[in-house]
Amino acid sequence: MKRVIATGVFNILHPGHIAFLEAAREIAGDYGELIVIVTSDVMAKKQKGKHVLPAEQRRDVVGSLKIVSSALIGDPIDMMVPIKEVCPDVIILGFDQEISEKELEEKLEKAGINADIIRIKESKKGEYMSTSSIVEKIRNSK
């Protein structure tokens, strides 16, 4: 069974997230697992400067999607902790995730994990395909 990891903050679940997770599910295949690591509150604040919902709620929302096999919260300090626990065959990166494939390859090699890395090259097009665009819309609708 192929184990595929996708990661993200998932501040406000939107169509861009769904497209990303659908692409990851397709890579996992019908009989594979799609395991989503939701960024911890500590790391989300470091990466984005904030988070909207607590990690437990973000995990529960993502985990409730049919295309997701399971969802867990990432480690607040070391991104490799849950990756070591899952020991994936493939790690999916979103087009806008800041980590480079080379940097992740080095971390995986150091941890003794042999996983393919696939970056989803583009996002679904349309309005409100990012958390920031949704937040901006809410701010401007007052």
Explained architecture:
With 142 residues, the chain is α/β, with parallel strands linked by helices. It has a single domain (3-140), classed as HUPs (Rossmann fold, 3-Layer(aba) Sandwich), CATH 3.40.50. It contains six helices and five strands, in the order E-H-E-H-H-E-H-E-H-E-H. Helix 5 (101-111) links the parallel strand 4 (90-93) and strand 5. The longest helix is centred in the N-terminal third of the chain and has 14 residues, at 15-28. The N and C termini lie far apart (49 Å).
Brief description of this entry?
The chain has 142 residues and is an alpha/beta fold. Helix content is 42%, strand content 17%.
List SSEs in N-to-C order: EHEHHEHEHEH
Q: Can you list the strand order of the major beta sheet? A: 3-2-1-4-5
User: CATH superfamily, please?
Assistant: HUPs
CATH topology title: Rossmann fold
Q: Main beta sheet: strand number and arrangement?
A: 5 strands, parallel
- Label the overall shape: globular
Poorly predicted parts: none
Helix content: 40-55%
Alpha plus pi helix count? 6
Return the CATH architecture.
Answer: 3-Layer(aba) Sandwich
